[in-house]
Amino acid sequence: MVGGGLLGLETARGLQAHGLAVHVVHAAQGLRNQQLDAQATLVLRRSLERLGMSVHTGTRTTAIQHGPDGAVTGVTFADGATLDVDMVVVAAGIRPNIGLAMVAGLETQRGIVVDDQLRSVDDDDIYTVGECVQHRGQVYGLVAPLGGVTSPAQLRRIADVAERYHIPMLKITGGQRIDLLGVRKEDLPKVWADLGMPSGYAYGKSFRTVKTCVGRDFCRFGLGDSTQLSIDIERRYQGLESPAKMKLAVSGCPRNCAESYVKDVGIVAVD
């Protein structure tokens, strides 16, 4: 498994559940380095090793070896070491497309270099967001979803995908996710690619989306900005594994429209 992020580790565990011996190879020094600090990555590594996985961190894969018949036989690492394998699965994220920024003369390294306000360091009038950004030396994956908050463009895309692949049911869940139900197995990769949206972690034992009311900006009873707080919580903890599903909510006043009182973790704004 090349890639020790969230999706890579989920895939590695799935492969192991099917009886395969699994090696996880990750270029960074710690697994899940985008979400966890150094100590937490060590705890995670020990847990995976207890499950029987072999973990290689600080290791960059540079080549995949093939036999005469074209079948995979191993991988080569940046330090010249090799590992014999008969299958390679890659979940190594993305590489920012910075071609336009380079032509425009903006400073680029791994991504477009920005300041703390997400402005290009070369031009204060140019703002950058998403996977093309490099901020304080770090690049990031896709912008996280905005928990029950969407846009006309996203809704059109969901509707187009549902029609294109003849998806029989769309459902708004109690957790403010949009479910596409009845997708044919063979269509799943194309559906995900056409949507271009992250998973809502509907089935994982993990931190998931945060249910919210509209808050003080759009409700005369609202006492707090529940929508923004829920977005901030999601961005910080989304996908974090836990012993069971975690259901969370933020309500902007004691009227409790987001049902915070009955969630695993509920926050309510009061005077």
Walk me through this protein's architecture:
This protein has 271 residues and is an alpha/beta fold. The chain has three domains: 6-84, FAD/NAD(P)-binding domain, CATH 3.50.50; 99-139, no CATH class; 152-268, no CATH class. The chain contains six helices and 15 strands. α2 links the parallel β1 and β2 (54-57). The chain is globular, with a radius of gyration of 21 Å. It starts with 5 loop residues before the first helix and ends with a strand. The mean pLDDT is 86.
Q: What is the radius of gyration?
A: 21 Å
Order of strands, widest sheet: 3-4-5
Number of strands: 15
How much β-strand is present in the residues? 15-25%
Number of domains: 3
For the biggest sheet, the summary is:
3 strands, antiparallel
Order of helices and strands: HEHEEEEHEEEEEHEEHEHEE
What spatial form do the alpha-carbon principal axes imply?
Answer: globular
Structural class assignment: alpha/beta
End-to-end span in angstroms? 51 Å
Helix residue percentage: 10-25%
Mean pLDDT: 86
Poorly predicted segments: none
Q: How large is the count of helical segments?
A: 6
